[in-house]
Amino acid sequence: MRFSACLAVLWLGCSSSADEPATTSSLDVQTESGVVVGAADDGVRSWKGIPFAAPPTGGNRFRAPQPPPKWTSPRDAKAFGSSCPQVAVTTGAFASGEEDCLFLNVWSPDPAPREPLPVMVWVHGGAFIVGSGSGALYDGAALARSQRVVVVTLNYRLGSLGFLAHSALAKEDPATGTGNYGLLDQRAALQWVRKNIRAFGGNEKNVTLFGESAGGVSVVEHLVSPGSAGLFDRAIVQSGAVPLALREPTLAEGEKQANALAKALGCGAQVVECLRSKPFGDVVAALKNPSTEPGGLFQGVLKTAAWFPVVDGVFVAKQPAERFAEGAIASKVPTMLGSNLNEGTLFHSGLLGDRPIPDEAAYKASLVRLLGAELADKVAALYPVTGKPDEALAQAESDAIFACPTRRAARALAKAGVAAYRYHFVRKPDNGIVAAFGATHAAELPFVFGNDDGTLGGVSDAGMPLREAMMRYWTRFAAAGDPSGASDPAWPRYDAATDPYLKLDTPPSAQAGLLTEKCAFWDTVPPVPLPLTYAE
Fold first, then answer.
1. What is the Cα–Cα distance from 455 to 135, expressed in whole angstroms?
2. Do strands 35-37 and 75-76 pair parallel, antiparallel, or not at all (unpaired)?
């Protein structure tokens, strides 16, 4: 599942005297729920599989997360908890996970620090349908050891179990809305961190929320959601400004998808009770993607229905694009955000089971399906086919869905008085399956976490200086809200007049004016609806 999850989304000094370690470190940590017993290895203490909410099973399915259970005997926390139920993206069949899956993991330096350290809470990617906080790429040991931060990773409900929107569910609990249970899980984890992380060596008053792909989208959702305000102090959005380009499902659209799922499962009368009674594997795998047309992020790629955050009027009160345009940002915290040079190549690589676009006519047809005929002509002129049609579409997607929305987000944040720092990652993996795809979606992850993935791609000796610099940038930002420092090139604060960004290459360098003309075009295109990925 690590392989398919990475494919779906596609991958941190010296301490001051006040930060000198204590002479002893405790692996038995008292939380509000009970004592957890961790492990120590190579300068890092870790605790895994800690419940931050009650199991979302039985009557808790399709409900906001409930308070975590309490225990009286010390709880072993040396192994990861189960991932949440999910499908294989290339088949649509149930692949792995258990419904009792709301666990988080903590890494902290060993010995324990004298003073509390910055905390970095990671939200994994996976298109909201696959992935987990226990992915090997997200192991927090390297960051905790080398950069002296506390790292937290978490699970959240995925697919239909995490994002089913139905009016009957909304009536059950109007205060928490419907269709965004996965986002509510993330919020519950942040609340747990505020209450418990000091016991693990972390500073509960200095929490950075960061994530990539669907995780980055989640950070955007928390930035604009009033209910998440006060739960984090910095934000990092990696390839996650997507909601400023793609319109999220409305509540009515979400209910249509919920009805389609109910029909696929044979649920008619008393639909909620019926849906809660079905095996969880059936629930996540029941709704298939009938699309066979090539082209587009989800067209002809996923064999399962896609699920996304829903504009339910509660957690997501308005489209995030509207919130940013209005400056209605609930959490005005320092924010770092960016994208990769070749985001779209992964989605047209064949690794996800997608079909290649055979010719220029099929390329144009895919643009028409996504944008309509008039816009399709303009995009085809901006991104002409000079080689393989997939390459043209991949670059259009890279700019339209990732790079240019990131610029819009940075501008909105700066206008609202928020310190924003924009990056553009351009270095391709040095080895592995995705090396041929350039700086594709999630290619920055081995550089951020300091972990290699031998299957997908990794970092050679030549890439190590950039990896070390990025780990410093990310953790300096977490510590102080400004990534600049030490001997690394200064990272300019974003300003719309000069449009600065940090080019993440070997070596990093401050630049300005990224994709100016193309982003000016994409700024005129309103967010387009996400493509339908299920049969009505």
1. 13
2. parallel
* Residue 297 pLDDT grade (very low, low, confident, very high; cuts 50, 70, 90): low
- Let me know if 339 is a catalytic residue: no
- Catalytic pick among 4, 441, 444, 484: 441
Neighbours of 98 (CB within 10 A): 14
Cα 487 to Cα 390, 419, 491, 492, distances in angstroms: 40, 22, 12, 15
pTM for the model stands at 0.94
Q: What span, in angstroms and rounded, lies between the C-alpha atoms of 451 and 342?
A: 21
Summarize the confidence of residues 484-490 as an average pLDDT.
95
Integer-rounded Cα Rg, in Å, for the chain is 22
Angle at 455 (CA atoms; ends 451, 456), nearest 5 degrees: 75
**Annotated catalytic residue 213:** yes
115 tagged catalytic: no
Residue with tokens 């179990």: 161
Q: Which of 493, 513, 520, 508 is nearest to 426 (CA)?
A: 508
What are the Cα distances from residue 141, in Å, to 106, 206, 416? 9, 19, 35
Count of domains for the chain: 1
Strands 335-340 and 420-425: parallel
Is 7's pLDDT higher than 70? Answer: no
Q: What CATH number is given to the structural domain containing 503?
A: 3.40.50.1820
Range of the domain at 472: 2-529
Q: Mean pLDDT for the chain?
A: 92
Q: Catalytic pick from 343, 391, 397, 444? A: 343
The string of pLDDT tens digits covering residues 86-114 is 999 888 999 999 999 999 999 999 999 99
- The answer to whether position 536 is within a domain reads no
Residue 192 falls within a domain, yes or no?
Answer: yes
What would the two tokens of residue 296 be? 């587009």
Q: Are 203 and 116 in contact (CB under 8 A)?
A: yes
Q: Which of 4, 46, 96, 213 is an active site residue? A: 213
Question: How far is 504 from 162, CA to CA, in rounded Å?
Answer: 34
Residue 479 counted as domain residue: yes
In a domain? residue 226? yes
Tokens of 145: 């050891």
Burial readout 194-223 (b: 16 or more C-beta within 10 A, e: otherwise): eebbebbbbbbebbbbbbbbbbbbbbbbbb
For residue 350, give the 3-state DSSP assignment.
coil
